[in-house]
């Protein structure tokens, strides 16, 4: 989850999020170097008293300021495209979950299990227990197994929503009448929080997303208990 006064990203909990963090650092270093270089040139131009009235053009300088930005853009574009393909890659998922956005809650359906589905509402502030987080806790968590490829089918019942969990590097729009899909692998056990990232109405900020990653045997026990209760 995010913390007060946090400046950076949340800790990565999936391989894709680790790649996104590395790309962010890579791009930030390039931006920092460009900013320092431009500031240095501006400072020299402002403070220097040297002028050259006879210099009309320089093909060498024009070649440099054309080729160098092109090389920088390539250095940024190649890893960016690589991550885009990694995010779109969905190979043989172990589990498929359908997430439906409603005003204003999420419903989850485990399509590999018959009759395994539930609605997930935010827990009101007055009902929170010690240790739970305000505006982030849900009465039913989306439980997944650790180290297993999970495919999430995302759609909406009424208006636009967006299913986003920053720690897992996942953000997918929920569009009424359309089925979008995304995939991720939780690399460690834990509870990961997200929120609807599309302004969907008056209670937009009150439909959190809670993903709980557990070992496979715990997930099997949890699913068995839910099916028995159903």
From TrEMBL:
One Gene Ontology biological process: ATP synthesis coupled electron transport
SUPFAM superfamilies reported in the protein's UniProt record: Cupredoxins, Cytochrome c oxidase subunit II-like, transmembrane region
Residue ranges occupied by any Cytochrome oxidase subunit II transmembrane region profile domain in the UniProt entry: 1-91
Domain of life per record: Eukaryota
One Gene Ontology MF term: copper ion binding
Localization in the cell: Mitochondrion inner membrane
Cofactor dependency: Cu cation
Record bears the keyword Ribosomal protein: no
Membrane topology per record: Multi-pass membrane protein
A Gene Ontology cellular-component term: mitochondrial inner membrane
Domain Cytochrome oxidase subunit II copper A binding: 92-225
Cofactor note: Binds a copper A center.
Spans traversing the lipid bilayer: 27-43, 63-85
Catalyzed reactions: 4 Fe(II)-[cytochrome c] + O2 + 8 H(+)(in) = 4 Fe(III)-[cytochrome c] + 2 H2O + 4 H(+)(out)
Keywords: Copper, Electron transport, Magnesium, Membrane, Metal-binding, Mitochondrion, Mitochondrion inner membrane, Respiratory chain, Translocase, Transmembrane, Transmembrane helix, Transport
Classification via PROSITE patterns: COX2, COX2_CUA, COX2_TM
Functional summary from the UniProt entry: Component of the cytochrome c oxidase, the last enzyme in the mitochondrial electron transport chain which drives oxidative phosphorylation. The respiratory chain contains 3 multisubunit complexes succinate dehydrogenase (complex II, CII), ubiquinol-cytochrome c oxidoreductase (cytochrome b-c1 complex, complex III, CIII) and cytochrome c oxidase (complex IV, CIV), that cooperate to transfer electrons derived from NADH and succinate to molecular oxygen, creating an electrochemical gradient over the inner membrane that drives transmembrane transport and the ATP synthase.
Family: Belongs to the cytochrome c oxidase subunit 2 family.
Protein name stated in the entry: Cytochrome c oxidase subunit 2
Organism: Gerres decacanthus (small Chinese silver-biddy)
Gene that produces this protein: COX2
